[in-house]
Amino acid sequence: MEFGPARVAVAFLILQVALSSLMTLASDADPEQDFCVADLASRTVVNGLVCKSPAAVTANDFVFHGLANPGNTKNAAGSSVTPAFAAQFPGLNTLGISMARLDFAQGGLVPPHTHPRATEILFVVEGSLLVGFVSTNNQLFAATVNTGDVFVFPRGLLHFELNVGKGQATAIAALNSQNPGVQAQAAALFGSGISDVVLEKAFGLSEKAVEHIKSKI
Q1: Which of the chain's ends, N or C, has fewer CB atoms near its CB within 10 Å?
Q2: Could you tell me which of 109, 99, 108, 106 has the C-alpha nearest to residue 66?
Q3: Torsion-angle region of residue 107: left (phi > 0), alpha (psi -120 to 50) or beta?
Q4: Predicted confidence band of residue 10 (pLDDT cuts 50, 70, 90)
Q5: Model confidence, pTM
Q6: Which residues make Cβ contacts (< 8 Å) with residue 146, sequence separation at least 6?
Q7: What phi-psi label fits residue 173: left (phi over 0), alpha (psi between -120 and 50 degrees) or beta?
Q8: pLDDT in tens, 59-114
């Protein structure tokens, strides 16, 4: 069966519509009401969080105090991430946005991770950070950002933040999802129960090396 120019044009139009629909469905849904403050006590399971009754909503539902104080950076990574996602900040539910505070001890690292449902934009409040992401063709885009600078991590791509300054550092992240998701690569690969044989072959490691890495996760 031959396809003339008109039929090809129609096929491309249908493909465009289909792709547009997929792109629309791939992000947080647009809200259909003024607000939908999450009812964190509800046991109903939906794709998102159930709204509590509008009659029970108060101004306090739209206030979050959790980013005011620095997180505890006395850990192996020397960093702390304090999220303000819908699960912590119910007023964000259905609004398609969230934030997080990142605190770093000197030399602290937020290890390589992804946000499968969000693009992240990072604002450096204090200090100097080496930040970067890796594209799907394994190209690294990295830069040192200082106080007042902004860097963006495209949705779903592997990225990291390392404090390269002489003291502590702080940054604020904004994300275009109420629940961006966080998947730390090291924990996902070596702490999830994937067969040692898979890891040995994938990374060219010995059994002993795999066990050593697992002991550190």
Answers
A1: N
A2: 99
A3: left
A4: low
A5: 0.81
A6: 124, 127, 128, 129
A7: beta
A8: 999 999 999 999 999 999 999 999 999 999 999 999 999 999 999 999 999 999 99
